[in-house]
Amino acid sequence: MMLRVGLLLLGLIAATLVVVSALTNGKVEPESNVSYSFESLVDGTLERKPARGGAEYAQAFVKDTAWINSLILYPFVTPSFRATIPHFLQSWLRNYIAGIFIYFASGALWCLWVYYFRKDYYFPKGNIPTKEPIKMQIIVSMKAMPLYTLLPSLSEHAIEKGWTRAFSEISEVGWPNYVMYIILYMCFVEFGIYWMHRGLHDIKPLYKLLHATHHIYNKENTMSPFAGLAFNPFDGILQACPHVIGLFVVPMHFFTHLFLFFCEAIWTTNIHDCIDGNVFAIMGAAYHTIHHTTYRHNYGHYTVFMDWLMGTLRDPEERKLKDEKSS
């Protein structure tokens, strides 16, 4: 245990030193004073964006998000009516529509593949969830979706105000730094979600008030891809908060941040299908199914690292051996 804690502290110290070094040595400054807005790159006008830093640069993010809003909202809201909606509400509406689409598209395709086309391969003994738990999971998720999608809207608002370390173009930091920042950001997210998730179990009032809603699905025949977002909305927001907090700690590319945020919906679909992907070090569905049945293991999100470090890891192979001995 002491070795694991020592490794954790060393990792945190190393990550902190890298970020501080990058900031103090100017590695996050633009490589040149020329960058272009995302919209202008798409339409070919190549409108120059202000150099990084300052209110003018922060406001340039508003143009980028306004372009995304127009793209997503176009089939649903006329341009004249959209012009009457405040920018923040447009961003929230866009995230809400995108969230619903991703939830149903990923969930339906996943269910069609694993429960219909590959049913005999993945579930030879049955245990396919019935319509009732799936219906309940969809209802719970839809009730929570308005608040879920408020969080990325708030993160965009913070970016537009210039409060975060977000940057607009990869050319501003260079590809090596861009890759390094993604790694640091995802390490921060993994660390944060582990402790947020574990806290929702260890702090009993929080579990009872928030997290218990998700854990009513604790058997293989009640878990499905649609359970991935079936949380109390404040539970889901708490577990997603590391994505937003990380923006204030690690320099992060704006569109990469949005992409990773919405990948959460696809990832949570994947880890609730009860299928063992057997990918080394990845906290896949087999690990997460154990979490839903023991309540004390596998709190991690993308990887098994934090659980290994803190002694809460339970390997699916260990479970199989125990099941075989008990049968």
UniProtKB/TrEMBL annotation:
InterPro entries: Fatty_acid_hydroxylase, Sterol_Desaturase_Related. Residues 1-22 form the signal peptide. The chain crosses the membrane at residues 96-117, 175-196. Keywords: Membrane, Signal, Transmembrane, Transmembrane helix. Residues 183-312 form the Fatty acid hydroxylase domain. Pfam families: FA_hydroxylase. It is found in: Membrane. Belongs to the sterol desaturase family. PANTHER family: STEROL DESATURASE. This is Fatty acid hydroxylase domain-containing protein.
